[in-house]
Amino acid sequence: MHAPLLKYRVLPTARIGIDELRSYVVRAFGWDTWRQTSAQLQDTIAQIRQFPESGHLPAELEGFVDGTYRQVLSGKNRIIYQVRDDTVFIHLVIDSRRDLQAFLQRIVLRLM
After folding, report:
1. Which UniProt keywords apply (predicted)?
2. In this predicted model, which residue has the larger pLDDT, 27 or 105?
């Protein structure tokens, strides 16, 4: 018997990353590729909800945050999340080839 899926919430910081990713993928590769990428992200989030401990702490965040933040790869994208109680909080979605620290700085400035 499988454990029930955890609830999840996509935070505004992750929505910014998803919006930027969608713009890039649509511009560079077209809508069909974006639909595939989006479906892959949704599948990965479903896996996180079922197996929340499967991710690992991103190297860039070591020493900055507690061990509750994890990441998994979804194709060429990173999903950074945190599990609290019965909910998965999706903090970031970012292309794995991008500089995470520069992205975080830009996100913080954008949200101010």
Report:
1. Toxin-antitoxin system
2. 27
The answer as to whether 105 is a domain residue is yes
List, as one string, the DSSP characters of 50-96: H-GGG-B--GGGTTTS-TTEEEEEETTEEEEEEEETTEEEEEEEEET
Q: How many structural domains are present in the chain?
A: 1
Q: Are the C-beta atoms of 34 and 26 separated by less than 8 Å?
A: yes
CA 106 to chain centre: 16
Residue 20 domain boundaries: 7-111
In this prediction the pTM is: 0.86
Q: Find residue 74's DSSP bridge partners.
A: 77
Q: Which domain CATH number covers 100? A: 3.30.2310.20
What is the percent of the chain with per-residue pLDDT over 70, rounded to a whole number?
A: 91
Element (H, E) at 10: strand 7-10
